[in-house]
Specification:
By secondary structure, this protein is α/β, with parallel strands linked by helices. Among the domains are: 145 residues, Rossmann fold; 109 residues, 2-Layer Sandwich (GMP Synthetase, Chain A, domain 3). It contains 21 helices and 31 strands. The strands form eight sheets. The chain has an eight-stranded mixed beta sheet, sandwiched between helices. α5 runs antiparallel to α6 and α14 crosses α16. It is globular, with a radius of gyration of 24 Å. Bound molecules: 5'-O-[(S)-butoxy(hydroxy)phosphoryl]adenosine (WT7). 5'-O-[(S)-butoxy(hydroxy)phosphoryl]adenosine binds next to α12, β20, β24, β25 and β27.
Length: 658
């Protein structure tokens, strides 16, 4: 078998060292939503399983006639059905008497709060939908959303969904260039944004980035701007006459009733751009009914959602985690959620634990990078708060190392709350590999088993399943309701990226190992995609940003193991002839990348080098650069075109950012 040599061996050893098991507490099991028979039930007939759930859980305007049409790799689910996802997330709960239930407890970073019930949400979303219509948006038009974590963000998404205008949310930390690329690819007609947001005690302007982005686009006719920071941003916010409209000017005066538009099951709900192995981000398409079913059912089962729970997914709505598990899944289940604007360290590291105590949060879902950041500060912040209401803890975005798992278990979960380590992707739309609380015996660091109805396997280079105890590539073996429907405007790239490596199977890009008991251990990406704080960033995107600078001749980027963020970006840069390579230039190049892509892509390490290791065909050997970055012994160098290169790089000087 030809296993990719890039699979990180150190991680395999690490994970193997952890063999403790945590069986479910019988008291939890007795009240759990999930039961062990779910697996057999789903396996007996996956399509019938999903069809029955779709009829039970979704309010349809018209029933579907066909569960699945699978024209590999193109899936259509619940064909013939008509529904509105915003109706399913909001109105139906109000109609059933839950109008006064809180949908979101919103907490602004400065300490201001808003309590939004389902009835409030119904009115706000209806007003926003009416405003979109007034701005000329109709079913099928794309709307870009670029906002901080304020209530108007989910309201804007639901307003789009209500009229069938697919949204594309661009994370508020992305740059103007990243925003304009996405607006252009989606040909968005409207941008919904805010003047700014609060971050680490300061107002951060957002609208100027929209203005810059719009200078590079032609499709946008209007922007709709929420006033969040007001006069706190220097000089206020410039509005372009005839193009920019304040949210409070247009939304507040609308009728608070709007009839949701019944849409086809396969109507595009949203596009979300994600990094791959090329510089151009992929517009991942998600549609309506299958996505609604997949997110709501997994949410209810995996987090054991009960009517009185206060649930907090601490991700940003700008990533898929927020789409599926802050907005659509929880709202479809009439769940009360926390929505927090700021960072965990403002005003200090007790902020999260204070929120959990104040709101009696019962379920917390966050990323290992956040857990490690808290770990670094020490448990005293958590210990000073009453976290006894927590009963389920979730993890997502990257492998959780056993140490972090155990810390989370002990210091946050009081040794009592089950942990669900959930593996999935922007493309999968819903959680795919996860324990079921009350059912699964967990092992720290393992995402355990595929969710009921999901087909997953670990295969070797030829696509054959590996035996227990071996590693290989993680693949998904059958379609699932929330799966991506393709890459916007590029069906061939969709086929090529996900379905060509192993015929008939979806290749996720991750390495995995199955232990002697059949547990799955995710081992990170096997392609040239880095995972920084649980977010995918392609090496090529960062390299393109670097070579775009006038001082750079060539650049190569790799991920380096980082104690907090999982991976940190390490850039090797060949300066142009005559350029003086010094710390000032290194700092300038780092900022250049942050400006081009966003602060998350800013290289933490940058090294100037006279040359890069390449194969005889000219391909950069990132594997060797990774070895250099990690400071470990070099792997096989026999395919290097020039053996002296590595020594030359080793002799170069680097600079790191703290
Ligand atoms: C990639 C997907 C899923 C929402 C956040 C990221 C990695 C995700 C886990 C996990 C190990 C994980 C994978 C995957 N990943 N969850 N529980 N254990 N790795 O979404 O940006 O689409 O990234 O994140 O490498 O392929 P994304």
């Amino acid at each position: 078998m030809s296993l990719d040599p890039n699979l990180p061996p150190s991680e395999i050893e690490n994970l193997l060292a952890e063999d403790r098991t945590f069986p479910p507490d019988p008291d939890f099991t007795a009240q759990a939503n999930a039961t062990v028979d779910l697996y057999a039930q789903a396996e007996a007939d996956p399509e019938a399983f999903w069809a029955a759930l779709a009829r039970e859980r979704i309010d349809w305007a018209e029933d579907f006639h066909t569960t699945l049409e699978w024209d590999l790799p193109f899936a259509r689910w619940f064909i013939g059905g008509k529904l509105n996802i915003a109706y399913n997330c909001v109105d139906r709960h109000v109609e059933r008497g839950l109008g006064d239930k809180v949908a979101y407890h919103w907490i602004g970073e400065p300490g201001d709060t808003r309590r939004i019930t389902f009835a409030d949400l119904q009115r706000e979303v209806s007003r926003a939908a009416n405003a979109l219509i007034e701005l000329g948006i109709t079913t099928g038009d794309r709307v870009a959303i670029y906002m901080p974590m304020i209530p108007e963000l989910p309201i804007a998404m639901l307003a789009c969904a209500r009229i069938g205008a697919p949204h594309t949310v661009v994370f508020g930390g992305f740059s103007a260039e990243a925003l304009s690329d996405r607006i252009n690819d989606a040909e968005a007609k409207l941008v919904i944004t805010a003047d700014g947001g609060w971050r680490r005690g300061k107002p951060a302007a957002l609208k100027p980035a929209v203005d810059d982005a719009l200078a590079m686009t032609t499709s946008v006719t209007h922007t709709l701007v929420v006033r969040r920071v007001g006069d706190a941003v220097d000089g206020g916010t410039a509005m372009v006459e005839g193009r920019d409209v304040w949210w409070h000017d247009i939304v507040d005066r609308q009728d608070d009733r709007h009839d949701p538009v019944p849409l086809d099951s396969e109507h595009m709900l949203y596009l979300l751009y994600t990094s791959g192995t090329t510089a151009k981000p992929k517009g991942i398409m998600h549609t309506t009914a299958g996505y609604l079913l997949g997110t709501s059912f997994t949410h209810e089962q995996i987090f054991d959602i009960k009517p009185d729970d206060v649930y907090w997914c601490a991700a940003d709505v700008g990533w898929v985690t927020g789409h599926s598990y802050i907005v659509y899944g929880p709202l479809a289940n009439a769940t009360t959620s926390i929505l927090y604007e700021g960072t965990p360290d403002t005003p200090d590291w007790s902020r999260w634990w204070q929120i959990i105590e104040d709101y009696k949060v019962s379920i917390l879902y966050c990323a290992p990078t956040a857990i490690r950041a808290h770990m670094k500060q020490g448990p005293q912040y958590a210990q000073a708060h009453d976290l006894s209401t927590l009963r389920v803890l979730g993890s997502v975005g990257e492998p959780i190392n056993p140490e972090a798992w155990l810390w989370y278990h002990e210091h946050i979960g009081g040794g009592r709350a089950p942990i669900v380590d959930t593996w999935w992707q922007t493309e999968t739309g819903m959680i795919m590999i996860t324990p079921l609380p009350g059912v699964t015996t967990t092992k720290p660091g393992s995402a355990t088993f595929p969710f009921p109805g999901v087909g997953a396997d670990v295969v070797d280079g030829e696509g054959n399943p590996v035996p227990l105890g071996s590693g290989g590539y993680l693949v998904l073996t059958r379609p699932w309701p929330a799966m991506l429907r393709g890459i916007y405007g590029d069906p061939e790239r969709y086929r090529q990226t996900y379905w060509s490596r192993f015929p008939g199977m979806y290749f996720a890009g991750d390495g995995a190992r199955r232990d002697a008991d059949g547990y799955l251990w995710l081992l990170g990406r096997v392609d040239d995609v880095m995972n920084v704080s649980g977010h995918r960033i392609s090496t090529i995107e960062v390299e393109s940003a670097l070579v775009d600078h006038k001082a750079v001749a060539e650049a190569a980027v790799v991920g380096k193991t980082d104690p907090i963020t999982g991976q940190a970006i390490f850039a090797f840069v060949i300066p142009k002839v005559g350029v003086e390579a010094n710390d000032a230039l290194a700092a300038e190049l780092r900022n250049h990348v942050a400006k081009a892509i966003g602060p998350i892509a800013k290289p933490k390490f940058l090294m100037f080098t006279p040359d890069l290791p390449k194969t005889r065909s000219g391909k950069i050997m990132r594997r060797l650069l990774r070895d250099i970055g990690e400071g470990r012994q070099l792997g096989d160098t026999t395919t290097l075109a020039d053996g002296g290169v590595v020594e030359a790089i080793r002799a170069s000087s680097g600079s790191a950012e703290e």
